[in-house]
Amino acid sequence: MAVSKSTLSIVFIVLGGLAVLFGIVLVFVGPIIIDDQIVKNVEINPNNGLSYTMWKDIPVPFFMSVYFFHIVNPDEILKGEKPTVVQRGPYVYRENRWKDNITFHDNHTVSYKEFRQYFFEESMSVGDESDVVTIPNMLVLGASVMMENMPFPVRLLLSTTFKTFNEEPFLTKPVGELMWGYDSKLVDFLNKYLPGMLPTSGKFGLFAEFNNSNTGQFTVFTGQDDIGKVHMVDSWNGLKSVDYWRSEACNMINGTAGQMWPPFMTKESTMPFYSPDACRSMELVYQRPGVSRGVPVYRFVAPKTLFANGADYPPNEGFCPCRQSGLLNVSTCRHNSPVFISHPHFFEADPVLLDTVNGLSPNEDEHGLFIDIHPETGVPMNVSIRLQLNLLIKSVFGISETGKIAEVVMPMIWFEESGYIDGPVLNTFRTSLVVLPMVMEYMQYIFIALGLAGILGAVMLYVNDKESIKDTKHDPTNETQAEKHSMNDTGKK
User: Fold this and answer.
1) Does 334 have pLDDT greater than 60?
2) Within 10 A of 307 (CB to CB), how many other CB atoms are there?
3) Where residue 286 falls among pLDDT bands split at 50, 70, 90?
4) For 48-74, what is the mean pLDDT?
């Protein structure tokens, strides 16, 4: 039995209406379902296999690339001439990070210590740890600046001590020793008779404190009661603030621990985090959208005010005493040594700094720091944190080792900590938190489109059926045949 067009049109209208209704319901309910799924996945909870593993063990490639500023004219510097440097590197180290001593608390926080180890990756490096470079001797030139205001006899005694232990103003040593420590009779002497004066009790090296160490005890919010607070720091080493700086705002411990951020970020969001290595909180700002390995991201970068001095940016006055913009004085948290942090090659710093050293060439692509983050989840997809370590050097009367050195903030090294999500972790992340929500979002429009198409088809089918019936009633052929049938019927009677 054939189904009439009218019946089919009614079926299409019903089905189309249901599809439109379902699509409209998804428009309102879909985002709620997606957001609820994101919330469940990003809170710090051992039951969340993917996100908890990423948070606890950081199962992604992470590297530290170190560049040395090799001094080519040390003798001329001692005579007062401008330093000339040549960049050497990168010397790349694979970085293993993991969290231990994890303790969950009743107030929806969790405490932990994050440990780190470094392993040299020769295949990724330009050179080997046996490469020899020349950099300022922090024990001599740093200590000389620290003792500048001490009585003259004390400065003479310090100079005599340097001579006794054969300490020169510049070090020429293999990269591996400069990184992880070298034997020094002066260091042994100081640790024996003045314990606690130096940051290390063993060998002296630029990163001697870093390897097989931790960044202190962080206590962060789990987000189980408020997802907007997830990963935000509640305390560090039991402190709500530090005392390195001169203002309450600068001493505040703000933001996260620098690995993940709360979800649902917008272009107006910022990315605050506390860095124990820099002894302060920092904040990145939105720059542009992008795509990282198939995942939509927002790129956040350091604002130009990050290392600005108090004169150029008054809120930074608390980080002073300041020099030119572009330098952060970290002496207060580095045993009062005259150490400064900046962007590599003095990128975005006062141009005066570039005039004091030959061999620097800053640009954003190579020396700007950034984090590409998936805004819906707050998970970084690609990270590149680049910082430079500088030492203030100058001639100090009474300490002959300093010669006639002109006062200059001398670049020593710069390093880049980089990491990105890849492999199985990326595939799982993309499927669970990118593809499935995207499919659900598209489904609502597909159902609405199919429903409207069904309704439109039903209307067209109904109109077509009515026109067919109308044409049949007014067809002359049909009327003549009807008359013949009528006459035949009369004759038969």
Assistant:
1) yes
2) 29
3) very high
4) 84
Q: Locate 90 and state its tokens.
A: 């990168």
Q: Which residues lie below 8 Å from residue 148, measured CB to CB, with a gap of 6+?
A: 155, 396
Please tell me whether residues 332 and 416 are part of one structural domain. Answer: yes
- Do 124 and 48 sit in the same domain of this protein? no
Lowest mean pLDDT among 43-47, 222-226, 255-259, 455-459: 455-459
Q: Mark whether 77 and 219 lie in a shared domain.
A: yes
Model confidence pLDDT, tens digit, residues 439-472: 777 777 787 777 777 777 777 766 766 666 666 6
Q: How many residues does the chain have?
A: 493
Residue 439 covered by a domain = no
The beta-carbon contacts of 57-61 under 8 Å, at least 24 apart in sequence, are: 57/97, 57/98, 57/99, 58/97, 58/98, 58/259, 58/419, 59/425, 60/419, 60/420, 60/421, 60/422, 60/425, 61/94, 61/419, 61/420, 61/422
Nearest to 337 by CA among 291, 279, 391: 391
172: left (phi > 0), else alpha (psi -120 to 50), else beta?
beta
Backbone angles phi, psi at 404, to 5 degrees: -115, 30
Structural domain that includes position 16: 1-59+444-472
407: DSSP letter: P
* Distance, C-alpha 113 to centroid of its chain: 19
Residue 148 lies in a domain: yes
The mean of the pLDDT values for the chain is 86
CB 93 within 8 A of CB 63: yes
Distance CA(407)–CA(400), nearest Å, equals 15
For residues 134 and 171, the answer to whether their CB atoms sit within 8 Å is: yes
The 3-state DSSP composition of the chain as helix, strand, coil percent (nearest 5) reads 40, 30, 35
**Judgement on whether residues 70 and 38 belong to the same structural domain of the protein:** no
- Kind of pairing between the strands at 280-292 and 295-301: antiparallel
Q: Are residues 86 and 52 in the same domain?
A: no
Residues 150 and 13 in one domain: no
Exposed / middle / buried, residue 135 (Cβ in 10 Å: 0-12, 13-18, 19+): buried
> Can you list the pairs that 462-466 forms with residues at least 24 positions away whose Cβ atoms lie under 8 Å?
462/5, 462/6, 462/9, 464/5, 465/4, 465/5, 465/6, 465/9
258 φψ region: left (φ > 0), alpha (ψ -120 to 50), beta (else): left
CA atoms of 461 and 453, how far apart (whole Å): 12
Beta-sheet strands, E only, within 223-318? 233-236, 270-275, 280-292, 295-301
Residues 304 and 373 in one domain: yes
Number of domains the chain contains: 2
Please state the pTM of the whole predicted model: 0.84
